[in-house]
């Protein structure tokens, strides 16, 4: 059965007191007999065995100044908080005023973290009500800065760390986590944090930020999430030499040792939380792919950078087709350049190829690969027999530094083009309609390349998707100036709309944050045992259909982060449908309720509910 998202107290009234039957997350009925003059029949409540200061200092229970007098009595906190009970709206007024006084985004980040550490209900209310503004603090771009500075701004622990000294202990350690029900785990090894490289254990802020979006955008309960760092070391010299660094001070494990480490962790998770969805995040190529292929058919997991980035980028490309007045099943008519051949670049291009094949307008997968030109840091993945851009000596494939290319990247090799052509040369040669940036390399969309692109197409689709903002392949302003205001533009991190010659040019944000919360919600609600390719493709199509004709005309491709809850609902319903269709769902459908109603009812909404104390032995 699907879990009721809120605890429910069912009261049977006797003359002087109430018998209260409370169901916890495991649907175990707990019964307590006490007098609750402030509660009515069917009141939602939260329960605790805690008392006094322990209640005030538990961020999942604390309401700060909002505890009612009756709650203060029964929880033993009378006199421990200021006397006036202040409801959430007043608390929000105070919080917002204090937040606005923070001078820098990083100060805001620290402020938000402190709020999350003392009162999660208030934190999530604030976040949901101001998603567009505050996602830029708890997520990209500010989270990037917070990762770099994690070891110097560290205040209080959140999440779990599994490190090289924990080998052999992980199955026992997982029981240290205080919650019996975990629905979503985001795990990183910190090897490629946004476009910032190897940040080791400092990467913890990424799972925390992603999971905050799961709660705020996807309605997952804050008690059901688990952020994890696999601290297998770091190769970041600066961190290794910093005495304040909090991770293991050795170089990264690699090879068999690395994969054995991850395997032990997966076993530990499975032993306690066999139904949890695992999101692999910010693992460097090729580990990211290797882990995905190892686990995707074994456990309920996906790789965010590969798969949900692919869903949202495909959504952007499909919506851009519509914005250019083309049908979305004409993807095969596009000429796409992808700058970046790592997890995200290859993942996004695979999603586009899957979609072209699904649309049935290409004869083979190979034909679809032929529509995409891929560049890595050396330039185009081209034919080394035709020579390279920087040397006239031909070099057969598999020799020299091209030996690193694997079969996933070699699918895009262009036999009729010279290896390592630079971006501008590629653009001039093939006249692309779409250019994607997933390189983590700022400024690689240079003026020459973008101007050349704009000469060949009326509405060039320019998507510099690298994060955070300062790693973006170009700025919004550059894209609109170099294309004479004609670009359809989206970036990974937010930019402001641009005014160009009196016209407001719209900026979209294409970030996997638009897809993973809804996906996780759908998996959680249906209790799907696996995450499938179809779920990502349908997520893309769902998101691509969300903008109105007028929005598309104005350059808006789909709703922004501010509408994340609405987007997540739609995505979750679609993911649930697929889970049932593909026979992967383990939750029984509820009679008389549509999937949409079930999804909506499952979404946690931060509000204060009365707290009652129960006897821990009941
Ligand atoms: N908007 C979104 O939702 C998402 C954005 N991203 C962003 O994508 C970026 C890449 O992530 P990911 O793929 O995981 O990282 P990887 O490290 O796996 O891959 C980076 C790729 O970029 C290539 N590259 C580096 N410099 C250049 C250059 N100057 N010109 C062309 N290619 C270059 C690398 O080449 P080589 O192989 O030769 O080293 C490599 O192929 C990050 O900045 C990340 O923030 C990632 C996921 C989601
Ligand atoms: C957004 C994201 O997942 C990344 O930049 O890695
Ligand atoms: Mg990522």
Structural account:
It is globular and about 80 Å long. It is built from 25 helices and 21 strands. The strands form 6 sheets. Strands 12-11-10-15-16-17-20 form a 7-stranded mixed β-sheet, with helices on both faces. A 5-stranded parallel β-sheet has the order 5-7-6-8-9, with helices on both faces. A 3-stranded antiparallel β-sheet has the order 1-2-3, with no helix packed on it. The protein has about 625 residues and is α/β, with parallel strands linked by helices. The structure holds NADPH dihydro-nicotinamide-adenine-dinucleotide phosphate (NDP), pyruvic acid and magnesium ion (MG). One of its GO terms (molecular function) is NAD binding.
Radius of gyration: 26 Å
- The separation of the N and C termini measures 23 Å
Principal-axes geometry comes out as: globular
Share of helix, binned: 25-40%
Our count of helices gives 25
Main beta-sheet annotation? 7 strands, mixed
Uncertain runs are 1-30, 391-400
Mean pLDDT metric: 92
Beta-strand residue fraction:
5-15%
Structural class designation: alpha/beta
Unique ligands:
NADPH dihydro-nicotinamide-adenine-dinucleotide phosphate, pyruvic acid, magnesium ion
| Strand arrangement across the biggest beta sheet | 12-11-10-15-16-17-20
The tally of beta strands, per DSSP, is 21
GO molecular function, one term: NAD binding
InterPro entries: Aminoacid_DH-like_N_sf, Malic_enzyme_CS, Malic_N_dom, Malic_N_dom_sf, Malic_NAD-bd, Malic_OxRdtase, NAD(P)-bd_dom_sf
Domain Malic enzyme N-terminal: 116-296
Active site: 139, 210
């Amino acid at each position: 059965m699907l879990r009721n998202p809120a605890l429910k107290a069912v009261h049977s009234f006797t003359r002087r007191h109430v018998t209260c039957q409370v169901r916890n997350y495991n649907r175990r009925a707990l019964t307590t007999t006490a007098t609750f003059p402030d509660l009515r029949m069917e009141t939602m409540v939260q329960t605790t065995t805690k008392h006094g200061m322990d209640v005030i200092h538990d961020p999942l229970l604390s309401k700060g100044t909002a505890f009612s007098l009756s709650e203060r009595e029964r929880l033993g906190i009378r006199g421990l908080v200021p006397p006036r009970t202040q409801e959430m709206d007043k608390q929000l007024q105070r919080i917002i005023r204090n937040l606005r006084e923070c001078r820098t985004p990083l100060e805001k980040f620290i402020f938000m973290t402190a709020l999350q550490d003392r009162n999660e209900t208030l934190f999530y209310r604030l976040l949901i009500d101001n998603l567009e503004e505050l996602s830029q603090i708890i997520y990209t771009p500010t989270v990037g800065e917070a990762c770099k500075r994690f070891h110097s701004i560290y205040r209080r622990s959140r999440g779990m760390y599994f490190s090289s000294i924990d080998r052999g202990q992980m199955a026992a350690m997982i029981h240290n986590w205080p919650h019996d029900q975990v629905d979503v785990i985001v795990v990183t090894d910190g090897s490629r944090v946004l476009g910032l490289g190897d940040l080791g254990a400092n990467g913890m802020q990424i799972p925390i930020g992603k999971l905050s979006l799961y709660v705020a955008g996807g309605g997952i309960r804050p008690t059901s999430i688990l952020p994890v760092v696999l601290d297998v070391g770091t190769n970041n010299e600066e961190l290794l030499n910093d005495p304040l660094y909090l991770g293991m001070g050795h170089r990264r494990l690699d090879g068999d040792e690395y994969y054995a480490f991850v395997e032990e962790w997966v076993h530990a998770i499975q032993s306690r939380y066999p139904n949890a969805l695992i999101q692999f995040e910010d693992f460097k190529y090729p580990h990211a792919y290797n882990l995905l292929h190892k686990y995707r058919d074994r456990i309920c997991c996906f790789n965010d950078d590969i798969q949900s980035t692919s869903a949202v980028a495909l959504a952007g490309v499909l919506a851009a087709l519509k914005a250019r007045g083309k049908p979305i099943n004409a993807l095969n008519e596009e000429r796409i350049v992808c700058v970046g051949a790592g997890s995200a670049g290859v993942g996004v291009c695979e999603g586009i190829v899957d979609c072209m094949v699904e649309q049935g307008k290409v004869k083979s997968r190979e034909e679809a690969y032929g529509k995409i030109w891929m560049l890595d840091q050396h330039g185009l993945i081209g034919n080394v027999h035709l020579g390279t851009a920087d040397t006239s000596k031909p070099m057969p494939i598999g020799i020299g530094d091209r030996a690193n290319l694997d079969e996933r990247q070699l699918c895009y090799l262009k036999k009729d083009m010279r290896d390592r052509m630079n971006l501008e040369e590629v653009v001039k040669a093939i006249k692309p309609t779409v250019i994607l940036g997933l390189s983590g390399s700022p400024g690689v969309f240079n003026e020459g390349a973008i101007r050349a692109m704009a000469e060949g197409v009326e509405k060039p689709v320019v998507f510099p998707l690298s994060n955070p903002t300062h790693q973006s392949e170009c700025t919004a302003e550059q894209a609109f100036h170099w294309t004479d205001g004609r670009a359809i533009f989206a970036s990974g991190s937010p930019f402001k709309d641009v005014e160009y010659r009196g016209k407001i040019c719209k900026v979209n944000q294409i970030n996997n944050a638009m897809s993973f919360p809804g996906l996780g919600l759908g998996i959680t609600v249906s209790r799907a045992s696996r995450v499938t390719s179809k779920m990502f493709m349908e997520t893309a199509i769902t998101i691509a259909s969300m903008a109105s004709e007028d929005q598309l005309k104005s350059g808006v491709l789909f709703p922004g982060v501010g509408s994340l809850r609405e987007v997540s609902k739609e995505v979750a319903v679609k993911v649930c449908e697929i889970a049932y269709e593909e026979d992967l769902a383990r939750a029984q459908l509820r009679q008389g309720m549509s999937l949409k109603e079930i999804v909506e009812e499952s979404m946690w909404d931060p509000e204060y509910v009365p707290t009652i104390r129960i006897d821990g032995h009941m």
